[in-house]
Structures are given as structure tokens and as C-alpha cells.
Amino acid sequence: MRLSELQEVASLAGIATCVKLLLVPTYHSTDFEVHRNWLAITHSLPLKNWYSDESSEWTLDYPPFFAYFECFLSIFASMLDPQITHLQNGQGYASNTVILFQRISVMVADLFLYWGVCKISRHLSAARKKLLLLAVIFSPGLFIVDHIHFQYNGFLLGMLLLSLAALQDGHDLLGGFWFAALVCFKHLFAVAGPIYFVYLLRHYCRGPQKVLRFFKLAGTVVGVVVVAFGPFAYYNQIPQVIKRLFPFGRGLCHAYWAPNIWALYYIVDKAAAIVLRKIGVHVNVPQAALTGGLVGDFSPNALLPQITPKISALLVVGTMLPCLVQAWRHPRKTDVARWVVYAYACGFMFGWHVHEKASLHMVIPFSILAVQSLQDAGDFIFIATVATYSLFPLLFEAKEYPIKVLLLVLYILVMWVSFAHNMMERGELNSNEASVPISDSFVHQPCNLEKLDEGKNVEKQPKDEGMQLLSIFEKVYLAGLVLVEVYGQVLHPFFLRDHLPFLPLMLISGYCSIGMLYFWAGQLFKIAFMSGFHTEQLPHMKKA
Amino acid sequence: MLQSETDVSRTPNCRSQRSTSPFITVLTRRSAIGTKKKKKMEQAFVWPWKSHKWATFLAISMFAFLLRMLVSLHSYSGAAVPPKYGDYEAQRHWMEITVHTPVKQWYQNTTDNDLRYWGLDYPPLTAYQSFVHGIFLNAVEPAAVALHTSRGYENTSSKLLMRWTVLSSDILVFFPAVLVFVALYYRQHANQEQAWALAMILLQPALMLIDHGHFQYNCISLGLAVGAAAAVIMRQELMACILFSLSLNHKQMSTYYAPAFFAHLLGRCFQCRSPVVGVMRLGVMVLATFAVCWWPFLSSWQSVLQVLSRLAPLERGLYEDYVANFWCSTSLLVKWKQFFSIPMLARLAMGMTIGASLPSMVQQILAPSAEGFLFSMLNSSFAFYLFAFQVHEKSVLLPVLPATLLALNEPQVLQYIVPIAVMSMLPLLWRDGLIIPYFALLSLFFLLPAHPVYGPQGKPNKQKGGIFKSSALNLLPFCSISGAVVLHLIYLFLHPPARYPFLFEALITVYCFVHFLALAIYTNWRQWFQPVDRAEVSADKEE
User: Fold this and answer.
1) ipTM value of the model?
2) Contacts A378 to B, Cβ<8 Å
3) Where do the DSSP E strands lie in A252-360?
4) Which residues of B touch A374 (CB under 8 A)?
5) Helix axes A401-419, B53-71, angle to 10 degrees
6) 20 to 30 Å CA-CA from A255: which of A115, A171, A320, B168?
7) Same structural domain for residues B285 and B429?
8) pLDDT tens track for A146-169
9) Rounded to the nearest 5°, which phi and psi values hold at B463?
10) Looking at chain B from residue 204 to 223, which residues have their Cβ under 8 Å from any Cβ of chain A?
11) What PANTHER family does the annotation carry (chain B) (predicted)?
12) Is B298 in CB contact (< 8 Å) with chain A?
């Protein structure tokens, strides 16, 4: 990497870090105490007790690599202030030292994110590279979830980007390694596992040495898993670890419904129940139907059939199928990013007990696609807005309200103008094909080429190019977000006061789930019907 | 970093892109690839400065506002430190007094208004502003401004409300004034440069830290001063008089700019056909504005004197805490307070201040010009900051403001004065618990793109690089920065010797004073001997 490029990344990352530093005193959720407790567990207890400790209600429920990571952090934490890592005295400890320490640990861990985005943007043209850097580094979702709410998503997503970058460069083994490591950090990322499996099987394990390659790949993945889980297997802790990692018995939806298909399902269910009752049909509405989703509660439905974890899992895999078929038939490295995004979208839409934060898993990798085609750029603006907006209920205190709004609006403004002027104005396909394999991945660059070819039919520059990034539906939908927000913040408190307190939140998750569904369906359509027209697969094209 | 839009070749738009069917896409795609060469390989990132000027300005303003909101989450002066607390409590107390006592008693010691506890010591406009904000607080959270019982009142919601009074003042006064100023003063510059200047003025850390961290309302008085400067540039002298009088009536510290306004407006009057009439007009305007502001206190001579005595507290001493001016820095060597009495020192300080601001005044009287006027603002505020009586660390905001207004004329001065000014307030901000925003905003300021290398009309202008690019002075900024870094490390990590507990503060003070003195000498020289806007002066004459 050249010095000037490094400088560019460093200055953007520096600016982002300054903003993150300023965010230190903002509200932090219980996740903060969860991670502090993990520091204490990994520091004070021997490894065999990590997953069986119950001295705090915030038990360790991330895979072993994350535990090792916390163990590493706890070395510094205990040097700084021994109370942080004390199992009993540390509980609920929230002095300035521990807040600063944990906040800064997130900022430092974000170095992975910067590394990942550097890797993935390496072969892009200067303009696209800058777009991608801006889109990822200043993602408001990451600011909200990692640096206000408190989690460590940035560096995990950095690993995902590293993995995708390796796959796009053709280093399949390395890509597999990073993905295996990522899943051993946070198992929620395993949703893309089937895609990785099929793709690596078909793309890497081929040629004369396919058996050898298969074993190399299997060896890599198993090696990573052994390093992660080996010590726990040694102490016979694996069943306990599994029990912690997959806590069945949680509801289909989280306390605040993540904007996915189940939110819509519930809303339809409740609405039907109310309507039926109004027209006189007796419906047996279960108690606490509207506060469902709490841990251990199966969120009973009134009318529609009950959803079990099995149905949800089947739906995830089922909706992923078209993508798996594509990966099996045409394992092209240029399409991997889209498949992975789609896999996470499926997991988000149909998964069991999904958190709204999981939408970051698809938004961040989707920015890779966004800088490569105009249509994806429009979709990116759309999905980034919807996903970030659906995170708003995470921050419910008054002092963060203007901050989250401004973070989102500023980001969308800058990204919108940048995308419109760096991808549209000067033509789509201007990054060179030879060194940019990934720009080859998708279609929709027609009209520029037509015009470049013929030099005729040149239309005048329209007044406002940016408006064409989004379709009419998308524009109307995004305008609707403003209405939803105005309703929740102004109209609802004004007219209904304390009645139906859940209604604004339900409206947000219901409305956002429509946007999510639209995005998911669009991706499904592209994968199922459009990548088949890829140039390689159409021999007759060569004649033309 | 960012390139101008001008060199962009405009390829046709893609209106039909989204509606074209995938089939056509593929058909056209294949044939095109052959003809398309790699000529556009390395395309740099482009920001549409030209077509999206106001979107750019909006984005910069939003970012500046976001930073202010973030700073306001942090601590403030005297947070939870009874019995006297700090500036936050002072402002809150003024709201309490102005809401609950009649206007005439605001500046008087009464049973309800104990002047020893944060008595109002700013001019009437601040009192009115406290009154308005007090009414707002009284409506939302009456306990926060209840008479007598609310002393030291701090809870989450009242803090948020107080912070929002500053944030809203900033967005209502300072931001519009700066936008108007940039659009007027830099109207002949490329949009990219205008945006840079705007960013420099709005993202300057000193004001953000003092107003939204430490807690003050400088944004109002400084915003009014910027508005007055914009009016001067527009040749709207009457408007300038009104706005500057308002600024003076909000904070007496705006006097630092008075020599510049006085000299420039006088110079302009001399250019008129009848100077006396011109001076009379302006004088009447100033008096009228003052009369309106002081109306409730004009009932008797005594009440006027009472207000005035509150505004000029001579008993406070030569300087406050550790301020990087002449008196404080030299007091290490010369014990001024032992040689002279306080009134004597006051007179001495006044004489030196006038002497230091005289050259810049004379220049403006002889040849008033827009750029010269801004330099004069800078020079006279430097004169006051360095030599005046009873200067506070926070007064450094006053020289910093014109330096940022001159961003495109003197990028070097800007890049020196802002970090040094922020550094001169390090002990204050450290006491306030604002060290995180201090470093975050200072680093952010260094990380912002250096001065864009495009001159007017988008032509490359090689002379104006950042300070780090000018070859002749390469060593100087390096020494300056390393010195500052070392001082920071010493201040933050070492304990001072027991005999000299304030040794490090004194070192910082002297270090900053040397810089300020050098800068002041340079800017004075610059104002006299390098008038850049001759073209503008002649254009003005043609009008």
C-alpha cells in the first residue's frame, strides 16, 4: 500500500476516532456491563469455569475467541484498575476509568475495520476507494451500536471484510480462515456459513488436486475451531459452552421487535385479532401478547400458527437456496460479496430472536457492492437509512436523540451527494476491468456504454442527478420514515399521552420491516434472475 | 485531498439506467468493453463544490453542530463543586435572578439578589438573554431556576436544557452570521475555498470548548461581532454600528474589537464628502442602540453607575489565573503588583493596550479596506489580550475569531493561533474535566484538510500551502509543535516540584505568550505592508 493511501485511511479513521472519543460520555446499555463482567470472568477464573460461572446474570455467551479477546483486554484493565476485573466488587462498576477503558478498547479494536476496508478497496479506483472508506468508516449504525450503545461489531465486521477481500483476490484458503475465525468470535455470523461452504467447495476444491485442496481447506477450518474450542474440550466443557451459545427458550422476537418478517407477522396477527373481536368473533387473545419477546417467553400468537425455531431455521435455509444454487453452479469470486449480504439478509428476515443490530451485518458488506454500480448505490442509500433508523429505539434518552438524528442525516447527505457525483456523472464503468475483478460483478451499466460507444444521443446533464439514485417507491418510503418519526416523537405523546405506549415502537419496526423486506426481495430477484446473464454464461454473446 | 470539479469531463447521464432491462444491459455491455480504454483509470474522488455549494455548507454546519452537541455531553465549569460552582452556575443563577426579580434590581444588591454570589457582571443584553432562557427553563423545569432554592441545581434534565440554551443561541446567532460572512467576504473565491474557510471558522476548537464545554455564551457576542464585520464588508456602516453595539452590550469583552471598528468607520467617514455628518450618523446610531439596551437602567444617573461598576470590577486584579499575556508571563521575572498599585497598573495597562493597537488603527483610518479591517480586528484584540488589565484565559477567543475569519488570507497564522490558543486554555479545561474533548477537537482540527491549493477562479495557487509545506519556515513549526507536545506530556504526566506547584502552568503560559507575541508582530506588519486587497479597494472606489 502506498503512503498516500495509508494517509488517506489514517486521516479518515482519525476523524472518526475523534468523534468516537467525544461519544465517550453518552448512554451505554447493559451490554457495557456484560462486557465488563466478561473481563472479570476471563481474568479472575480459570478457563474451565468461564462458561459455567454464574456470579452475575451476564454470563459469557460468545464463542471462545471472544473470550480470549476479553482475557487479553483484561490484562490491561486490571493494570489500570483492579476493580474492573473483580468478579464480585466489579459488578455494576461504572467509574470514568472503566468507561474510558472499554470505550477506547472498542476504538482500538476498530483498527481491524480499517484494515478490512483497506484490503477490500485495494483494487478500486481512487474515487470508489474513497467512497467505500467514507461509507464504512462513518457508518452511523456502527457509531450508534458500538460507540454509544456499546458493542464490538466494528472489528468483527472488519474480519468479515478481510475474509471477503481474500475471496475476491482468489485467496480462498485465507478467506475461509478469516471466516472461521470470525464465527469463533461471534457465532451470529455463522448464517453465511452455507454460502462459504458451497462456494469454497466449488471454487477452491476443484482441478486435479481437488481432494488435497479439500483437506487443506478442512484442515484450516478445523484448525481454527480446535484452537478456539480445544481448551474447553480438554476440560470437558463443550456441552456447557454449547448450552451458553445457543440459549433456546428465548422468544421469536427480541424485546424491541427487529424489523423483520416476524414483526410483520405479529402485527398482522394482532390486527386480525382486534378486527375479529370488533365484528364479534370470539378470539382467545393470550396474555402479554404485546410485550412478548422477553427471555423465555414464546410470544404467543392469537390466530396465526405458532412459529418454532425449526420453522424459522428452515425458512432461513430455504430462502437462501437460490443463492446456494447459484454458488454451486457458477462459483464466481465476483459474486461472493452479494451472496454473503443476501445470506445475512435472510438470517435477519427469518431468523429466530434476531436483534436489530444484526442489520449491520448486511449493510457494511453491502457498501462493497454499492461503490461498484449505481443501482446498488441507490439500494445502499435506502438500506443504510432504513437499517440505521431501525436502530434509533436503542437510544431512548433525550440527550442522544439529536445526535443519532444528525449522525444519520449527515451521513446520508454526504453519501448521497458523493455517490451521485462519483458514479453517475462520469459514467459507470470507468474503473478498469483488468485490475478490478469485482467491478465486473453486476449488470446495469447500460446507457453510459451506449453513449460512450456511439457518441450520439447525448442528453443534457439533468439538474439534479442525485434524485435518480432512488426509485419513486423508495423516495416515498423514505419520506414515510419522517412521518413515522414525527408520529412517534410528537403526535403520539401529544394525542394519546400514556395510552398504547408500545405503538410508536411497533410502528417503527413494522414500517422498517417493509423496507427490509423490499431490500431482501430485491436482492433475491437479482441473485435468482440476473446473475444468470453474466457474460461468461452466454456464449452467443461473444458473436455479438 | 479533494479535487475541484472543474476538470471533470461530463459524460452523459444515466436517467434510463434503472429502467433498462437486464437483457439490453448485457447486449450493450459486451460490445462496449472493447472500445473503452483505461483512460479513466485513476479517477480521483470528486465533491461537487460547484453544483452543491449549499449542500456542502449545510453538511459542514451540521458537522460543526454535531461536534458542539457532543462536546456538550461532557463536563462543565464547576460541575458539582459547591459552594460556588462555576460559570454554569453563574449563568443559571442569572436566569434565576432575572426571572424572579424586577429589572431595576438585577444589578443591585437586594435581599433576593446577593451580588456576592455570582452577581450579574455582564452588560444588559446578557441579562435579557438570561431572562429569555430563564423563562424557557421556568416553563419546563421551574425548580431549576427557583429563587434561592435552586443554587447548585444540577440534574440530568436541567443540564440538558441549559446546554440547549447555548446550542440554540449558537445556531441562531453564530452560524447565520458566519455563513453570511463567508458568502460575502469570500464571494470571489472558489466554492471549495469558501467551504474550507467556513469549516475553519465553525470547527475551531476554542469556541466549542468554552461555550459548549466550559459553559458560556460567547457565541452570541462573537456572532454579533461577525455580523458587524460582514456589515462592514458590505459597506452597511449603520448596520455595523448596530450589530457591534449589540455585541458590546452582550459582553464587554467585545471592546477588544472596538479600536478596529472605530478606526475603520472613521476612515470610511473621511472618505465621504462630509466626514462630520458621517461620524454624527454613526454616533447617533451607536447611542440609540445603547439607549435601547440600557433603557430600564436609564432612570437615574446612579443606576447607570451601579451597572457600570458591576461591569468593570477593578478589584479583581491584573490578570486571572494563568493567562498567556504580557503581565502574567513577565510576572515570573517582574513582580508588577509589588512595584505598582492597582489603579496605577490599570492605567499602565490601558496605555500599553492603546499603544499596541494604535498602529493598526492608524492604518485603517488612513486606508480603510475590508481585509485591513479584519486584520485590524485581529491586531486590536491581540493588543487587548496581551496588554489589557484583567484579562481572562477565555479572552483568547477574541483574537482567534478574526484569525479564523482571515482563514484564506492567512492560513499560516490560523494554523498557528488555533492550536496555541487552545493550548493556552489547557489548565482551565483540565480543571473543568474537559480533557477528552480537548484532545479530540484539537486532533480533529489537525486532521482537517489543509488549505485547498486552488486560488480564486480555481487556479492553482502555489504560494498558499499549509504551514508544513512552506520550505523557508520548515523548522519553525516543527520546533513549535514538538515544544507543545513536550509541554503537554509534562503537564499531564509529571508532578510539579513542591516549591513551585504552578510551574507547569507558568511554562505553558510563557510558551503561548511567545507565540502570540510573534504572531501579533507578524499580523501588524502584514496589515501595514502587505495589503492584498488593493484590487478590492479600487473596485470599491469605482462604485
Assistant:
1) 0.88
2) 18
3) none
4) 14, 17-18
5) 150
6) A320
7) yes
8) 999 999 999 999 999 999 999 999
9) -70, -30
10) none
11) DOLICHYL GLYCOSYLTRANSFERASE (PTHR12413), DOLICHYL PYROPHOSPHATE MAN9GLCNAC2 ALPHA-1,3-GLUCOSYLTRANSFERASE (PTHR12413:SF1)
12) no
